[in-house]
Amino acid sequence: MALSQRKKSFSNSLRRDIRISFSLPLITTPCVILCFMRTLCLSFSPKSLSPLKQNHCRHAGKNPRDKPNKFKELCQFPSTSLLNSAPVDSNDVIKQPSFEDEHQKSPLSLTLNELSEKLGGTGRATAVWDCLRAGIDPSLYYAQKFDGDATSSSPDEGISDHAVLDAWIHANSMKSSAETILSQRYELVSDPVDRALPMRRQGQGLGISAWNKLQSVMKNYDLTNNTQNMIQPASRDKIFTIEDSIASLSHMTVSPDGTTKLLLKMARDGLEVESVIIPWLDKGFSTLCVSSQVGCRQGCTFCATGRMGKLRSLTADEILVQVYYASKICRISNSVPGSTIQQGLGSVDNIVFMGMGEAADNAEAVLLATNTLVDRRMFGLAQSKVTISTVAPDPEAFATLGQAPAVLAWSVHAVDDSLRKQLVPTTKYSMEELRNGLVKALSSRSNKLRRTMLEIALMEGVNDSKRDAELLAEFAQSIMNDVPGSKIVVNLIPFNDIGHPTYRTPSIERVLEFQKLVVEHGSANGRGVLCYVRTTRGDEESAACGQLATKKKASNT
Questions:
Q1: What pTM did the predictor assign?
Q2: Residue 31 is among the residues annotated as catalytic for this protein
Q3: Fewest CB within 10 angstroms: 92, 426, 467, 545, which?
């Protein structure tokens, strides 16, 4: 009965408002309309809802009074203060994201389609990647194009490149100053940064609109990933760069053979990681060894990184920025006259995930970084030129990392279970269980990616006996027998000293004898097993395999 009376009251009010609207002058019409709206809102107050619908609202976690209150606010006249206030620009209100928010991506880890969408076109995204591939910061490089001064050096050359050039000079103990060499380069080449870009891109600008969008991407990354920048907001005229937002070059050392170790400081928290450029001067290219974590939790007893423990995993951007800096250093080294490395380092043509960290413990970032490395429009490496190494914490690690378009490598170190447990204390699975995991993963891969490396860190009197060699050859053969089209390559790594009290580097004669035993025993039992001895590079500067460890640490986050 109450509901029927309510509807009748609403009907009478409606007819009354309509009669008034026709009888009043035109100037009163807005007020009448507002009055009509008020009647409409009041008629649909919570009391007009049936008990069943009110119950439904409460069960859904809603207050049945919320919606009418909203309508009442709309029906009221605006206040004078609101009418006189200036309009609010949404861009002026910046939400400071918490560190728990999902991390934004920088242009390094965005897919080309994602970057194209953010910049407003594929051509713009390609222009940015032409810079990144050469180790040039696009934010700095394209900012120069707005100045209109063709004689001025690019900001990237004047800031980031200059710092890297100075580090290269000191690392090589060169007498010339950075300023002198830089001026010599400008005498030889009018614009060395432009020359590093494809011909179609030389002298081309990005456009102020696209540059602002690029800065917006970098700014969002900076705000969501770097905790200190949440506390200290950036100034309006700041240019957000790779160096300031992702990582900066903290230190660089160069061995006599050209092996170059980089120490990069992460902008996020100040933690440092190492990566190593290994030049092959006779081949004209370099291999880059990248890190996937700060430290490592696997605790291999022969590895300096294992002593650090795991501090944290790197993001895909922090992995890829190592490639960016390596490309920058290779480009600069090739243009410096008077260098002890006369032929320069050669461009990065091969990347191995064999630096600090366990790839399987940071699989998501490693997979994302690998896809960027092999995308022909981005870093453009061949899939066969990227290798992901894992100690295999569990059998599923191979399947997880096997999703990456790259070659797999397994840090075996010993086939005997008890000996491997001694060398890799975190081992929880038998070698047979891990082998089955590898076989399953390889069987689902294309024939081109069924080539796998088994890595052995050889230590005198520990794992370099005849029996160890025979077990290793049989183990490799069993994998090839179970995976058609597969190829196993054994990589022998003579132990690099890390100050261990008992581990010693075997003599070269002993290493070669071990290699001979693996090859002969493998050939006698089926298809031949390829076995190589890795040349020790960079051990003078603690840049060799197993020697990577950062000494300066920030707080563990």
A1: 0.76
A2: no
A3: 92
